[in-house]
Amino acid sequence: MASKDAQNQRRGLPSFLPGVPDPDQSLPASSSNPGNQAWQLSRPLPRSFLPTLDLIIIHQQVELLGMILGTETSNKYEIKNSLGQRIYFAVEESICFNRTFCSTLRSCTLRITDNSGREVITVNRPLRCNSCWCPCYLQELEIQAPPGTIVGYVAQKWDPFLPKFTIQNANKEDILKIVGPCATCGCFGDVNFEVKTINEKLTIGKISKYWSGFVNDVFTNADNFGIHVPADLDVTVKAAMIGACFLFDFMFFEHSLAGL
């Protein structure tokens, strides 16, 4: 019988998100398989990994204080696998002044920890513009995995009609594109952002904002997202897509009673 390593090589060796110990302690962090696609990168990562994911669910926690007072509080997110099991927890760090006066454009840091409380991914968001009529100084995120090691960026690209972004590697070279719909209001349906190759000829995944019902959408700022990816997508790209999901929440779906 072929060894497990050999089986992994034949199927392209799935990549992993950091945070949970690998049960075998035998799988390497990245693959040298020549059949890997351009978006499958090789990056140094910690020796602990999460089993392969093709669906990442992100659930924003309801902020009761913000609902009662009509104020913007720091966002918190549960990150789950396809079985609904929590694998990570993300907390926004930002100052009250930024949340009050900069609102959804605010600069912040999102710290993603595993179930043991160890920080595994850090997402930094600077204060930037958000306008389809302003082609400069657009939105950008920096992704560190593990914290202190920059592995990629998510950068907004100017387009007068569609929300467009690129996922970049640590050298700011474009790896993938993300293209959203013309209307992101999400009334009575999901909103899908398609993840495509650079030439936009192949769709490899999507980031979906799930419609959670009229009452939730109007009276809370709690959103639910799903990230659909190839199981063997490189871990650093998965981390960047999680960061992109947070960015989309701020840009297109963040609201509270204060804004009604």
Which structural category fits the helices and strands? alpha+beta
Q: Mean of the pLDDT scores? A: 76
Could you describe the largest sheet, including whether it forms a barrel? Answer: 12 strands, antiparallel, barrel
- Order of adjacent strands in the largest pleated sheet: 3-4-5-6-7-8-9-10-11-12-13-14
Question: What proportion of the residues is helical, as a percent range?
Answer: 10-25%
Provide the β-strand percentage band: 25-35%
Distance between the termini: 63 Å
* Principal-axis shape: globular
Model regions low in confidence, pLDDT < 50 over at least 5 residues: 1-39, 41-49, 256-260
Order of helices and strands: HEEEHEEHEEEEEEEEHEH
Q: In oligomeric terms, what are we looking at? A: single chain
Number of alpha- plus pi-helical segments: 5
Rg to the nearest angstrom? 18 Å
* Total beta strands: 14
Describe the structure.
This protein is α+β, with helices and mostly antiparallel strands. It is globular.
In short:
The chain is α+β, with helices and mostly antiparallel strands and 260 residues long. The protein has helices spanning 4-10, 64-69, 96-102, 214-219, 235-253, and strands at 17-18, 49-50, 55-60, 76-80, 86-93, 108-114, 119-125, 140-144, 150-157, 164-169, 174-179, 191-196, 203-210, 224-228.
Topology:
Blueprint: H1 4-10, E1 17-18, E2 49-50, E3 55-60, H2 64-69, E4 76-80, E5 86-93, H3 96-102, E6 108-114, E7 119-125, E8 140-144, E9 150-157, E10 164-169, E11 174-179, E12 191-196, E13 203-210, H4 214-219, E14 224-228, H5 235-253
Antiparallel strand pairs: 1-2, 3-4, 3-14, 4-5, 5-6, 6-7, 7-8, 8-9, 9-10, 10-11, 11-12, 12-13, 13-14
